[in-house]
TrEMBL record:
Cofactor(s) required, per the database record: thiamine diphosphate
Gene3D superfamilies in alphabetical order: 3.40.50.920, 3.40.50.970
Localization: Mitochondrion matrix
Species whose genome carries this gene: Astatotilapia calliptera
Recorded catalytic activity of this chain's protein: N(6)-[(R)-lipoyl]-L-lysyl-[protein] + 3-methyl-2-oxobutanoate + H(+) = N(6)-[(R)-S(8)-2-methylpropanoyldihydrolipoyl]-L-lysyl-[protein] + CO2
Protein name: 2-oxoisovalerate dehydrogenase subunit beta, mitochondrial
SMART domains on file: Transket_pyr
Superkingdom, taxonomy of origin: Eukaryota
Keyword annotations: Mitochondrion, Oxidoreductase, Transit peptide
Limits of the Transketolase-like pyrimidine-binding domain: 40-215
GO terms assigned for molecular function: branched-chain 2-oxo acid dehydrogenase activity
Length: 361
Protein backbone atom coordinates (compact mmCIF):
# COMPACT_ATOMS: atom_id res chain seq x y z
CA UNK A 1 0.00 0.00 0.00
CA UNK A 2 0.99 3.63 -0.42
CA UNK A 3 1.01 4.03 3.37
CA UNK A 4 3.36 1.08 3.80
CA UNK A 5 5.68 2.35 1.09
CA UNK A 6 5.71 5.86 2.56
CA UNK A 7 6.37 4.49 6.04
CA UNK A 8 9.25 2.39 4.74
CA UNK A 9 10.86 5.36 2.96
CA UNK A 10 10.38 7.53 6.02
CA UNK A 11 12.02 5.01 8.37
CA UNK A 12 14.92 4.63 5.97
CA UNK A 13 15.52 8.40 5.97
CA UNK A 14 15.45 8.45 9.77
CA UNK A 15 17.90 5.55 9.92
CA UNK A 16 20.33 7.31 7.59
CA UNK A 17 20.10 10.46 9.70
CA UNK A 18 20.60 8.53 12.92
CA UNK A 19 24.13 7.28 12.23
CA UNK A 20 26.98 7.91 9.85
CA UNK A 21 28.94 5.18 8.07
CA UNK A 22 30.84 2.97 10.52
CA UNK A 23 34.15 3.40 8.65
CA UNK A 24 36.11 5.84 6.52
CA UNK A 25 37.35 4.57 3.17
CA UNK A 26 41.08 5.16 2.66
CA UNK A 27 42.19 4.63 -0.95
CA UNK A 28 45.20 2.48 -1.79
CA UNK A 29 48.26 4.08 -3.42
CA UNK A 30 47.92 4.60 -7.19
CA UNK A 31 49.30 1.49 -8.93
CA UNK A 32 51.95 2.30 -11.53
CA UNK A 33 52.67 -1.15 -12.94
CA UNK A 34 49.48 -1.55 -15.02
CA UNK A 35 49.55 1.57 -17.21
CA UNK A 36 47.31 4.67 -17.19
CA UNK A 37 44.71 5.00 -14.44
CA UNK A 38 41.34 6.66 -14.17
CA UNK A 39 39.30 7.78 -11.15
CA UNK A 40 36.65 5.12 -10.55
CA UNK A 41 34.37 4.08 -7.76
CA UNK A 42 33.87 0.37 -7.05
CA UNK A 43 30.94 -0.20 -9.40
CA UNK A 44 32.80 1.56 -12.23
CA UNK A 45 35.85 -0.65 -11.66
CA UNK A 46 33.56 -3.70 -12.00
CA UNK A 47 32.16 -2.26 -15.24
CA UNK A 48 35.71 -1.70 -16.48
CA UNK A 49 36.65 -5.35 -15.76
CA UNK A 50 33.53 -6.61 -17.55
CA UNK A 51 34.17 -4.27 -20.49
CA UNK A 52 37.76 -5.57 -20.80
CA UNK A 53 36.48 -9.16 -20.74
CA UNK A 54 33.77 -8.66 -23.37
CA UNK A 55 36.31 -6.88 -25.61
CA UNK A 56 38.98 -9.59 -25.38
CA UNK A 57 36.84 -12.75 -25.17
CA UNK A 58 34.24 -13.14 -27.95
CA UNK A 59 32.57 -16.02 -26.06
CA UNK A 60 31.96 -13.99 -22.87
CA UNK A 61 28.32 -13.32 -21.93
CA UNK A 62 26.83 -11.41 -18.97
CA UNK A 63 23.34 -12.22 -17.74
CA UNK A 64 21.10 -11.73 -14.70
CA UNK A 65 18.10 -9.75 -13.52
CA UNK A 66 18.19 -6.19 -14.92
CA UNK A 67 21.79 -6.31 -16.21
CA UNK A 68 20.73 -5.17 -19.69
CA UNK A 69 19.87 -1.64 -18.52
CA UNK A 70 22.89 -1.47 -16.20
CA UNK A 71 21.73 -3.35 -13.10
CA UNK A 72 20.37 -1.94 -9.84
CA UNK A 73 23.88 -0.88 -8.80
CA UNK A 74 24.89 0.27 -12.34
CA UNK A 75 27.70 -2.30 -12.67
CA UNK A 76 26.80 -3.24 -16.28
CA UNK A 77 25.80 0.20 -17.52
CA UNK A 78 26.45 0.75 -21.25
CA UNK A 79 27.63 -2.80 -21.96
CA UNK A 80 24.53 -4.00 -23.84
CA UNK A 81 24.67 -0.99 -26.15
CA UNK A 82 28.38 -1.61 -26.77
CA UNK A 83 28.35 -5.40 -27.23
CA UNK A 84 24.78 -6.25 -28.19
CA UNK A 85 21.80 -7.95 -26.61
CA UNK A 86 23.14 -11.43 -27.38
CA UNK A 87 26.06 -10.89 -25.00
CA UNK A 88 24.51 -8.78 -22.20
CA UNK A 89 20.94 -9.77 -21.45
CA UNK A 90 18.27 -10.00 -18.77
CA UNK A 91 17.03 -13.27 -17.31
CA UNK A 92 13.78 -14.21 -15.57
CA UNK A 93 13.67 -13.60 -11.81
CA UNK A 94 14.93 -17.11 -11.02
CA UNK A 95 18.32 -17.53 -9.36
CA UNK A 96 18.31 -21.30 -9.80
CA UNK A 97 17.75 -20.77 -13.51
CA UNK A 98 20.44 -18.06 -13.78
CA UNK A 99 23.15 -20.31 -12.30
CA UNK A 100 21.86 -23.43 -14.08
CA UNK A 101 22.04 -21.56 -17.40
CA UNK A 102 25.53 -20.31 -16.48
CA UNK A 103 26.73 -23.85 -15.84
CA UNK A 104 25.46 -24.88 -19.27
CA UNK A 105 27.16 -21.93 -20.97
CA UNK A 106 30.46 -22.70 -19.21
CA UNK A 107 30.29 -26.46 -19.94
CA UNK A 108 29.80 -25.61 -23.62
CA UNK A 109 33.13 -23.74 -23.48
CA UNK A 110 32.04 -20.12 -23.32
CA UNK A 111 32.77 -17.61 -20.54
CA UNK A 112 29.71 -17.16 -18.32
CA UNK A 113 29.37 -14.18 -15.96
CA UNK A 114 26.16 -14.44 -13.94
CA UNK A 115 24.84 -11.74 -11.64
CA UNK A 116 22.68 -12.55 -8.63
CA UNK A 117 21.09 -9.23 -7.75
CA UNK A 118 21.79 -9.53 -4.00
CA UNK A 119 23.91 -12.11 -2.17
CA UNK A 120 20.87 -12.55 0.11
CA UNK A 121 19.01 -14.09 -2.85
CA UNK A 122 21.70 -16.54 -3.88
CA UNK A 123 20.09 -19.30 -1.79
CA UNK A 124 17.56 -20.46 -4.42
CA UNK A 125 20.66 -21.21 -6.55
CA UNK A 126 22.47 -23.01 -3.71
CA UNK A 127 21.80 -26.49 -5.10
CA UNK A 128 23.03 -25.51 -8.58
CA UNK A 129 26.21 -23.95 -7.15
CA UNK A 130 27.06 -26.60 -4.53
CA UNK A 131 25.76 -29.80 -6.14
CA UNK A 132 26.33 -29.02 -9.81
CA UNK A 133 28.92 -26.27 -10.48
CA UNK A 134 31.33 -27.22 -7.67
CA UNK A 135 31.25 -30.95 -8.45
CA UNK A 136 31.09 -30.96 -12.26
CA UNK A 137 34.81 -31.54 -12.85
CA UNK A 138 35.16 -34.09 -10.05
CA UNK A 139 32.18 -36.24 -10.98
CA UNK A 140 33.24 -36.50 -14.62
CA UNK A 141 36.87 -37.32 -13.82
CA UNK A 142 37.91 -34.02 -15.45
CA UNK A 143 36.26 -34.93 -18.78
CA UNK A 144 33.89 -31.97 -18.37
CA UNK A 145 33.96 -28.83 -16.24
CA UNK A 146 32.19 -25.49 -15.76
CA UNK A 147 35.32 -23.62 -14.72
CA UNK A 148 34.44 -20.67 -16.96
CA UNK A 149 31.58 -19.66 -14.64
CA UNK A 150 31.81 -16.55 -12.45
CA UNK A 151 28.90 -15.56 -10.20
CA UNK A 152 28.84 -11.94 -9.02
CA UNK A 153 26.63 -10.66 -6.19
CA UNK A 154 26.33 -7.47 -4.09
CA UNK A 155 27.20 -8.42 -0.49
CA UNK A 156 27.37 -7.13 3.06
CA UNK A 157 25.68 -4.43 5.12
CA UNK A 158 24.76 -1.13 3.54
CA UNK A 159 23.43 1.05 6.38
CA UNK A 160 19.73 0.37 5.83
CA UNK A 161 19.49 -3.03 4.15
CA UNK A 162 17.83 -4.95 6.98
CA UNK A 163 17.34 -8.71 6.99
CA UNK A 164 17.12 -9.31 3.22
CA UNK A 165 19.72 -6.90 1.85
CA UNK A 166 22.67 -6.93 4.28
CA UNK A 167 23.75 -10.54 4.63
CA UNK A 168 27.26 -11.93 4.19
CA UNK A 169 26.83 -15.59 3.14
CA UNK A 170 30.46 -16.45 2.31
CA UNK A 171 30.75 -19.15 5.01
CA UNK A 172 28.01 -21.26 3.38
CA UNK A 173 30.15 -21.62 0.26
CA UNK A 174 33.47 -21.97 2.08
CA UNK A 175 32.27 -25.45 3.12
CA UNK A 176 32.13 -26.57 -0.51
CA UNK A 177 35.26 -27.91 -2.29
CA UNK A 178 35.39 -27.03 -5.98
CA UNK A 179 34.47 -23.35 -5.64
CA UNK A 180 36.57 -20.23 -5.20
CA UNK A 181 35.09 -17.42 -3.09
CA UNK A 182 36.53 -13.92 -3.40
CA UNK A 183 35.69 -10.57 -1.70
CA UNK A 184 37.52 -7.31 -2.62
CA UNK A 185 38.03 -4.29 -0.34
CA UNK A 186 38.39 -1.53 -2.97
CA UNK A 187 38.02 -0.58 -6.66
CA UNK A 188 41.65 -1.50 -7.55
CA UNK A 189 41.29 -4.91 -5.88
CA UNK A 190 37.81 -5.45 -7.32
CA UNK A 191 38.91 -5.11 -10.94
CA UNK A 192 42.06 -7.22 -10.60
CA UNK A 193 40.40 -9.96 -8.54
CA UNK A 194 37.30 -10.10 -10.77
CA UNK A 195 39.47 -10.51 -13.88
CA UNK A 196 41.35 -13.28 -12.06
CA UNK A 197 38.05 -15.02 -11.23
CA UNK A 198 36.88 -14.78 -14.85
CA UNK A 199 40.19 -16.21 -16.08
CA UNK A 200 40.31 -18.94 -13.41
CA UNK A 201 39.42 -22.47 -14.54
CA UNK A 202 37.19 -23.11 -11.52
CA UNK A 203 33.70 -21.77 -10.80
CA UNK A 204 34.13 -18.58 -8.73
CA UNK A 205 31.79 -16.60 -6.52
CA UNK A 206 32.68 -12.91 -6.41
CA UNK A 207 31.00 -10.95 -3.61
CA UNK A 208 31.00 -7.15 -4.03
CA UNK A 209 30.64 -5.01 -0.86
CA UNK A 210 27.62 -2.94 -1.81
CA UNK A 211 28.27 -0.15 0.69
CA UNK A 212 31.53 0.52 -1.20
CA UNK A 213 29.98 0.74 -4.69
CA UNK A 214 29.90 4.54 -4.47
CA UNK A 215 31.77 5.23 -1.22
CA UNK A 216 35.09 3.74 -2.43
CA UNK A 217 36.96 5.79 -5.05
CA UNK A 218 40.49 5.13 -6.33
CA UNK A 219 42.74 5.59 -9.35
CA UNK A 220 42.10 2.31 -11.20
CA UNK A 221 44.13 1.11 -14.22
CA UNK A 222 42.13 1.27 -17.46
CA UNK A 223 43.81 -1.77 -19.03
CA UNK A 224 43.15 -5.33 -17.85
CA UNK A 225 45.30 -6.69 -15.00
CA UNK A 226 44.99 -9.56 -12.53
CA UNK A 227 45.60 -9.94 -8.79
CA UNK A 228 46.41 -13.51 -7.70
CA UNK A 229 43.65 -15.46 -5.96
CA UNK A 230 44.25 -17.23 -2.61
CA UNK A 231 46.85 -14.66 -1.58
CA UNK A 232 46.17 -12.51 1.46
CA UNK A 233 47.68 -9.02 1.51
CA UNK A 234 49.47 -7.53 4.51
CA UNK A 235 48.25 -3.92 4.43
CA UNK A 236 50.10 -2.78 7.52
CA UNK A 237 52.94 -4.48 9.35
CA UNK A 238 52.86 -4.70 13.13
CA UNK A 239 54.33 -6.60 16.07
CA UNK A 240 51.65 -6.99 18.79
CA UNK A 241 48.32 -8.12 17.29
CA UNK A 242 47.27 -9.60 13.93
CA UNK A 243 43.95 -8.25 12.59
CA UNK A 244 42.27 -10.27 9.79
CA UNK A 245 39.21 -9.32 7.73
CA UNK A 246 37.91 -8.99 4.17
CA UNK A 247 35.71 -6.60 2.20
CA UNK A 248 34.24 -3.63 4.08
CA UNK A 249 35.53 -4.78 7.47
CA UNK A 250 39.13 -4.14 6.35
CA UNK A 251 38.42 -0.39 6.53
CA UNK A 252 37.06 -0.79 10.06
CA UNK A 253 40.19 -2.67 11.16
CA UNK A 254 42.51 -0.09 9.60
CA UNK A 255 40.86 2.52 11.85
CA UNK A 256 41.10 0.14 14.82
CA UNK A 257 44.84 -0.31 14.16
CA UNK A 258 45.30 3.49 14.26
CA UNK A 259 43.29 3.74 17.50
CA UNK A 260 45.29 0.91 19.13
CA UNK A 261 48.58 2.60 18.22
CA UNK A 262 47.44 6.03 19.37
CA UNK A 263 45.60 5.11 22.60
CA UNK A 264 47.42 1.95 23.73
CA UNK A 265 50.79 2.04 21.97
CA UNK A 266 49.86 -1.33 20.44
CA UNK A 267 51.27 -2.20 17.01
CA UNK A 268 48.74 -4.04 14.77
CA UNK A 269 49.38 -6.04 11.60
CA UNK A 270 46.37 -5.72 9.26
CA UNK A 271 45.70 -8.53 6.75
CA UNK A 272 43.10 -8.53 3.97
CA UNK A 273 42.26 -12.18 3.31
CA UNK A 274 40.74 -11.35 -0.16
CA UNK A 275 40.07 -15.01 -1.05
CA UNK A 276 37.87 -16.94 1.39
CA UNK A 277 38.26 -20.28 -0.42
CA UNK A 278 40.96 -21.53 -0.74
CA UNK A 279 42.35 -19.11 1.88
CA UNK A 280 45.95 -18.11 2.51
CA UNK A 281 46.83 -20.01 5.69
CA UNK A 282 50.56 -19.30 5.37
CA UNK A 283 50.35 -15.49 5.46
CA UNK A 284 47.99 -15.45 8.46
CA UNK A 285 49.96 -18.03 10.47
CA UNK A 286 53.29 -16.34 9.72
CA UNK A 287 51.86 -13.11 11.14
CA UNK A 288 50.43 -14.78 14.26
CA UNK A 289 53.79 -16.49 14.97
CA UNK A 290 55.26 -12.97 15.02
CA UNK A 291 52.53 -11.16 17.03
CA UNK A 292 51.19 -13.95 19.27
CA UNK A 293 47.65 -12.54 19.08
CA UNK A 294 44.85 -12.76 16.51
CA UNK A 295 41.59 -10.87 16.04
CA UNK A 296 39.28 -11.87 13.17
CA UNK A 297 36.27 -9.73 12.33
CA UNK A 298 33.38 -10.14 9.88
CA UNK A 299 29.79 -8.89 9.56
CA UNK A 300 28.25 -12.39 9.28
CA UNK A 301 26.95 -14.11 12.45
CA UNK A 302 29.68 -15.45 14.72
CA UNK A 303 28.54 -19.10 14.94
CA UNK A 304 29.88 -21.01 11.94
CA UNK A 305 31.22 -17.81 10.37
CA UNK A 306 34.48 -18.05 8.45
CA UNK A 307 36.33 -16.59 11.45
CA UNK A 308 35.73 -19.99 13.10
CA UNK A 309 37.72 -21.78 10.39
CA UNK A 310 40.60 -19.29 10.62
CA UNK A 311 40.60 -19.49 14.43
CA UNK A 312 40.66 -23.30 14.41
CA UNK A 313 43.46 -23.51 11.85
CA UNK A 314 45.61 -20.92 13.63
CA UNK A 315 45.09 -22.69 16.97
CA UNK A 316 46.32 -25.94 15.37
CA UNK A 317 49.29 -24.34 13.61
CA UNK A 318 50.39 -21.66 16.11
CA UNK A 319 49.34 -22.97 19.53
CA UNK A 320 52.72 -22.48 21.20
CA UNK A 321 53.05 -18.94 19.79
CA UNK A 322 49.74 -17.63 21.14
CA UNK A 323 49.90 -15.11 24.00
CA UNK A 324 46.12 -14.80 24.37
CA UNK A 325 42.96 -16.58 23.19
CA UNK A 326 42.00 -15.82 19.58
CA UNK A 327 39.27 -13.20 19.39
CA UNK A 328 36.30 -13.19 16.98
CA UNK A 329 34.41 -9.90 16.66
CA UNK A 330 31.46 -10.61 14.38
CA UNK A 331 27.73 -10.14 13.87
CA UNK A 332 25.32 -11.62 16.42
CA UNK A 333 23.41 -14.89 15.95
CA UNK A 334 20.23 -13.11 14.85
CA UNK A 335 18.81 -12.05 11.49
CA UNK A 336 20.29 -8.74 10.34
CA UNK A 337 18.26 -5.96 11.97
CA UNK A 338 17.10 -2.69 10.45
CA UNK A 339 17.04 0.17 12.99
CA UNK A 340 19.42 -1.76 15.27
CA UNK A 341 22.08 -2.17 12.60
CA UNK A 342 24.53 0.20 14.41
CA UNK A 343 24.39 -2.16 17.43
CA UNK A 344 24.74 -5.30 15.31
CA UNK A 345 27.77 -4.53 13.17
CA UNK A 346 31.24 -5.30 14.55
CA UNK A 347 32.31 -1.65 14.66
CA UNK A 348 35.69 -0.23 15.62
CA UNK A 349 34.75 0.13 19.30
CA UNK A 350 33.94 -3.57 19.67
CA UNK A 351 37.20 -4.49 17.93
CA UNK A 352 39.16 -2.00 20.05
CA UNK A 353 37.75 -3.53 23.27
CA UNK A 354 38.79 -6.98 22.05
CA UNK A 355 42.36 -5.76 21.49
CA UNK A 356 42.48 -4.31 25.03
CA UNK A 357 41.37 -7.68 26.45
CA UNK A 358 44.01 -9.55 24.46
CA UNK A 359 46.83 -7.20 25.46
CA UNK A 360 45.85 -7.44 29.13
CA UNK A 361 45.29 -11.19 29.13
Amino acid sequence: SAVAITGCACSRTKTQRRHAAHFTFQPDPVPSQYGPTQKMNLFQSITSALDNTLASDPTAVIFGEDVAFGGVFRCTVGLRDKYGKDRVFNTPLCEQGIVGFGIGVAVAGATAIAEIQFADYIFPAFDQIVNEAAKYRYRSGNMFDCGNLTIRAPWGCVGHGSLYHSQSPEAFFAHCPGLKVVIPRSPIQAKGLLLSCIADKNPCIFFEPKILYRAAVEQVPEDPYTIPLSQAEVLQEGSDVTLVAWGTQIHVLKEVASMAQEKLGVSCEVIDLQTILPWDIETVCKSVVKTGRLLISHEAPVTGGFASEISSTVQEECFLNLEAPISRVCGYDTPFPHIFEPFYIPDKWKCFEAIKKMINY
